[in-house]
Design goal:
The structure is a single chain. By secondary structure, the protein is mainly α. The protein has one domain (4-138): Winged helix-like DNA-binding domain superfamily/Winged helix DNA-binding domain (Arc Repressor Mutant, subunit A, Orthogonal Bundle), CATH 1.10.10.10. It has helices at residues 4-17, 24-31, 35-47, 71-78, 98-124, 127-138, and strands at residues 51-53, 60-62. A hairpin with a 6-residue loop joins strand 1 and strand 2 (60-62).
Length: 144
């Protein structure tokens, strides 16, 4: 996964904390990217029923309460896979070497176990948890 996941969480925290719908341009400035990237992300989030867009006035708002929106649901919305995938295996290890012959099945099993732990954590962590941690860091609520 690239930075889509963290950018999506950033975007959703901003949307959740705003009294008015936020445009992709405003969100992009905060994320540090361009508005077209945010529009692609918000398109995926909208397709998954996490946010809605507003015609005429522009902007987005949450369709789910932050307390009900897990990081796993966000991950699934913007990911190409349904399972949490963190690690990739290198291709074409040499069968002539004992390490090369067995490294992929050994690492695949270990990596999947770690990814399953990450998946469990994402399922129990909500957007509200992220917002609370953000507020703790800021010492106040909202985004300026």
């Amino acid at each position: 996964m690239d930075t889509r996941f963290s950018s999506a969480i950033h975007t959703l925290i901003m949307i959740a904390g705003s009294d008015a719908p936020l445009t992709s341009e405003i969100i992009a400035r905060s994320v540090g990217t361009n508005a077209s990237y945010i529009r692609r992300l918000t398109g995926l989030l909208k397709k998954s029923g996490i946010i809605e867009s507003h015609r005429g006035i522009g902007g987005f708002s949450l369709l789910q309460r932050p307390e009900d929106l897990t990081l796993y649901a966000i991950y699934q919305a913007i990911s190409d896979t349904q399972q949490v995938h963190v690690f990739d295996l290198h291709r074409n290890p040499s069968d002539a070497c004992v390490v090369g012959r067995y490294i992929q099945p050994v690492l695949a099993e270990m990596f999947r176990g770690i990814e399953e732990q990450a998946e469990r954590e994402l399922k129990r962590t909500t957007l509200a948890d992220c917002i609370r941690r953000m507020q703790d860091k800021l010492g106040k609520s909202g985004c300026e």
